[in-house]
Structure formats: C-alpha cells, structure tokens
Amino acid sequence: MSGTAELAVLHDRRILVVEDEYMLADEVAEILGNAGVEVLGPAANIESALHLVAEHDWIDGALLDVNLQGEMVWPLIDALMVRNVPVVLVTGYDADVIPRPYADLPRHEKPATARDFVQTLARMMTPS
Predict the structure, then answer these.
(1) Which of 10, 35, 41, 49 has the greatest number of C-beta atoms within 10 Å?
(2) pLDDT band for position 4 (50/70/90)?
(3) In terms of residue numbers, what domain contains 69?
(4) Which residue has the higher pLDDT, 97 or 80?
C-alpha cells in the first residue's frame, strides 16, 4: 500500500499527538492534518495530554513519546488502554526500558521519521 493510500484510513479520525520535541510534533501534526485527521495536541507533557484525553469523548488513536520532559508516559497509556485507543510509542530508548504491560505496543525508536510513526498508526487502524 502506498504512503498516501495508507494514510487515507486516518481521514476523519481523531488522533492524540504527545511529543515534547517541537519540530517532530509539528511535523507529525502536519502529516496528520494533511490526511484529514483532527489532531488533538500536540501535547508536550503528561498533564496536558491527560487533560485532552479527559476532554474528548472519543479518540481513535495516539502517537506518544515515551519520555516527556523527564516524565514517563505510562499513566497516559493506561488512560488510553482503558478506552481501547490504539497507541504507537515513539522513543529514544531500546526495548528493555519499556515495562512488560506495554512491551507489545508498536514502537519506533528515534530517529525514525514522523511519516514512519503515522504510517504505523494507519496500519494499526486499517481493517483486516
């Protein structure tokens, strides 16, 4: 499936973006916006992200940086998992740092590209 066709599955979806690196967050938000996504965020910290989760009745998917200004994202993942929201992790850490409950979540190690993150999310949301 081509990149553009793959992203079509995201059209009219609501995606939470949580990333504390401004340029990367902006690039992800731009790619999602161009695919017709309603972008929640980007949030740069756990508090803002949890506020966005509480504020919205539904969220179709989430792209989450694992470490936000020194805070690990685990409480946010828990809040999303309770609502069955698909999550893609973005991290500079290797797999050993990811706790067992989150070890099976799709993960990209930086420096992967914003397009890589978005395409993984699109694949997760494509009906089989």
Answers:
(1) 49
(2) low
(3) 3-125
(4) 80
Task: Give the number of domains in the chain.
Answer: 1
**Least confidently predicted of 2-6, 48-52, 68-72:** 2-6
* For residue 128, pLDDT beyond 70: no
pTM across the whole model: 0.89
Nearest to 35 by CA among 113, 110, 106, 119: 119
Q: In sequence order, what DSSP letters do the residues of the chain get, joined into one string? A: --HHHHHGGGTT-EEEEE-S-HHHHHHHHHHHHHTT-EEEEEE-SHHHHHHHHHH-S---EEEEESEETTEESHHHHHHHHHTT--EEEEESS-GGGS-GGGTTS-EEESS--HHHHHHHHHHHHS--
15-33 pLDDT, tens digit per residue, is 999 999 999 899 889 988 9
Residues 6+ away with beta carbon under 8 Å from 111: none
The one-letter code for the residue type at 62 is: A
